[in-house]
């Protein structure tokens, strides 16, 4: 089982979602970003950190320091389920391959299904393949 699958399975069992995972260049620092409906608080991070520390030890995952946190207000969107969950929210998207000469879009997320994402950008509908996504983040409402 790869590390991402291990984390995803473990977190799902605790009622959390793996949003993202980063490792430093030498793999010594591991950052895990978690979420759940209603948001994440400090107690959630501590609970997950303690549990993951034990799981990673049992699975012989080599790391020196583990950081667990919420994804923040500008949460990354990576999988189709993320786009479905946050429909109606404002997002910032960067594509791998430009559409009509443009790679960056900011708009309201309308829907996602069958590997496609639909945004409303300045009154126009933009549809792109999820496979063409470089990165996407929520735009905080502040």
Question: Could you characterize the architecture of this molecule?
Answer:
Helices cover 25% and strands 42% of the residues. The relative contact order is 0.14. The strands form two sheets. Strands 7-6-5-4-8 form a five-stranded antiparallel sheet. The chain has a three-stranded mixed sheet with strand order 1-2-3. The chain is elongated and about 50 Å long. It folds into two domains: 3-69, RimP-like superfamily, N-terminal (GMP Synthetase, Chain A, domain 3, 2-Layer Sandwich), CATH 3.30.300; 80-138, Roll (SH3 type barrels), CATH 2.30.30. The protein is of the alpha+beta class. Strand 4 and strand 5 (102-113) form a beta hairpin.
Adjacency order of strands in the biggest sheet = 7-6-5-4-8
Count of DSSP-assigned helices: 3
What's the CATH topology label of the largest domain? GMP Synthetase, Chain A, domain 3
Number of strands: 8
**Inertia-based shape:** elongated
Unreliable sequence segments: none
What structural class do you assign from the helix and strand content? alpha+beta
**CA-CA gap between termini:** 40 Å
CATH-scheme architecture of the largest domain: 2-Layer Sandwich
Strand content: 35-45%
Portion of residues within helices: 10-25%
State the order of secondary-structure elements, H for helix, E for strand: HEEHEHEEEEE
CATH class of the largest domain: Alpha Beta
Overall tally of domains: 2
What integer is the average pLDDT? 93
Most strands sheet? 5 strands, antiparallel
Rounded to an integer in angstroms, the radius of gyration calculated over CA atoms is 17 Å
